[in-house]
User: Fold this.
Amino acid sequence: KDAIQPIVDTATALDSKMGDLKKVIEAANAKKQTTAYTQAGDTKEFDTALTNATTLDSDKGDNEDANAVQTKIDALTNAKLDGENQLANAKNDAIEKINALKNLNKAQKQAAIEAVNSATTKDAIQPIVD
Assistant:
């Protein structure tokens, strides 16, 4: 019996880590709908981490220990997405361009700036400036 308990303890710890991995995958899939992801300049690190985590959580996953599972969790949790910054920078650039326009009156500039500030994607900003 003494020889079996460490095996059970290891399996229990691994089961707990796999449960954590499932939660992180679920959160990551939800994050794909956010500005942080949809407007990101580069999603490769995030996508790779999500793919690796999802593969491990599938029937095709390798027999990895709790430390390896934690490494996948950390990679996915720490993957950088800069969509919020990308959108903010695009808005700031557009507002600078609008303010530099010489022929618009104050109300026209204000309307254009309000349209930029309410835009939710970089693609929606460019037609306002054009």
Notes: The chain has seven helices and no strands.
